[in-house]
Amino acid sequence: MAELTFTKLNPESHLLLDQPLLRLPVELSRKNFKLAAVHVEHDKKHLLGALKVTANDSLSGKKTPSETLGSLDSMINRMKNLKRKMEGFHDEEKTTHRQARQRLEHLHSLYQVPSLADAKYDEWSRIRLNRLLADYLLRNGYSESARALAKEKGIEDLVDLDVFVQCHKVEESLRRGSIQECLAWCSENRELTRKTNNSLEFELRLQQFIELRRKGLLPEAQQHARKFISSTAEQRNPEVQRAAGLLAYSPGTRAEPYRSMYSKTRWDFLANLFLKTHHELFSLPARPLLHLALSAGLSALKTPSCHSIYASSSSNASSTTTTVCPICSTELNELARSLRHVQHNKSSVEQDPIVLPNGRVYGRGRLLEMSAKVGLEEGRVKDPTTSEIFDISQVRKVFIS
Q1: Is there a contact between 298 and 289 (Cβ–Cβ < 8 Å)?
Q2: For a 10 Å CB count at each end of the chain, is N or C smaller?
Q3: Could you give the CA distance from residue 19 to residue 266 in angstroms, rounded to a whole number?
Q4: Residue, of 400 and 122, whose pLDDT is higher
Q5: Closest by alpha carbon to 383, among 393, 397, 395?
């Protein structure tokens, strides 16, 4: 019964890490629908107005029949363009629905796995591991490697390739000192970011102002500020006032905050702000999913003694033990140092436990055997972790209550 309980699979706990897998298609569908609605509303308003004007001019005789036909042809061409845009949105919607269906099927298959020992669980876990690796590669700019991995493993619909490729292009353009790509992204997603009162577009316009001031183009900088910055004074008054102060300080100033505003490190700030805005908009975690999974696994295995100076042979040269604890291994010990350890409700205790004067507990038989192997005289025992030697009379028996 204990073994059955241990190997029983709890799908709900496994899927906590996979929430972004379903959230992103929903956010993409929402964005696609809103963009389509904006185009329809914009063209509808234009066409109804143009149709009304054309009809009135035709009835009043202000336009000849040929001019009226020309106006109608223009409206028809505009509607054809709208149709092509709607077809593009429809294709994107079909792609999003296909991805959502594949992801639902992938997650639903976990509920068909009876236990952790089942071979189907190993297969499902390998697919998730490949997804996490592809996500990590995409977030670090290795788009082609991620694409090749997804194609080889047949998980293209389970990986957000296009979203991260576009995100990386905009991020890299900002780090190179180019704003246009990010401004285009803001314009495309303005309807979605407006409700969150996000500062990304304001910071981009401020950077444009800074670059104009850096080049000494004061009239252009003032015109730009009146058009894009002054209008936000009610919401961002401190930032607007600092921007106005730039007009009085040259790029070589040492006065703060103007020195920092002229600094080239602002481009990294803008790139990080874009990443934060992008991930929030599409409900993506700020950290790679691989890091989250690894942190959860390390915390589950970590114990208070893992980072003790007496932890194991990997961190203590005088220790005579070898450990199978992954946290105490050379590869993972430093990586897990800053993580918390979990509260373990069950403990494994050796047979016939005894406690040494230093408070460490071992099984009596194993301790005597190891002490004899290192050549200690009878009646003496050695702590295999700290290498301290004690008289057997100092050892006390432990009773587990």
Answers
A1: no
A2: C
A3: 33
A4: 122
A5: 395
